[in-house]
Protein: Prefoldin subunit 5
Amino acid sequence: MAQPQQTVNVADLDIAQLSEVRKQLEEELNHLTNSFAQLKQAQAKFKACLENVNEVKPEHKTKTILVPLTNSLYVPGKLSDPEHVIVDIGTGYYVRKTRAQAAKHYANKVEYIRTNVDTLEETIQKKRENMNYLTNLLQQKIQAETQGGPTGRS
Structure:
């Protein structure tokens, strides 16, 4: 059976409990920020792929071009079929697609990641607001305790 969730007012927590909640929130925020950075990197990769697909043109069939093997390694080559490209669809699988299909595939990936980045950005912003609130509350309680008064309760 699922346990019913219990709501606790953070203002009722003591300094040690507030510190622990702040630590957990900080860990969540770090994880979300790392995820955000990874999504932005993936988005940049797909945008680069889209740009590369758009650079492949039928008039390049007779010209020597630089073919990317990795992000930093290119070799000279000639296109045998400039109307088709090989697309990495993930986990080591590659599919032959037309340039238009490949461009649509990468554009869809960029858009999908953009929506996830936007959602994650909102979540990070809310977590930061919670973190600021907790930090201020913690400082108030510490200050009230050091002045010998009550711990912020009336």
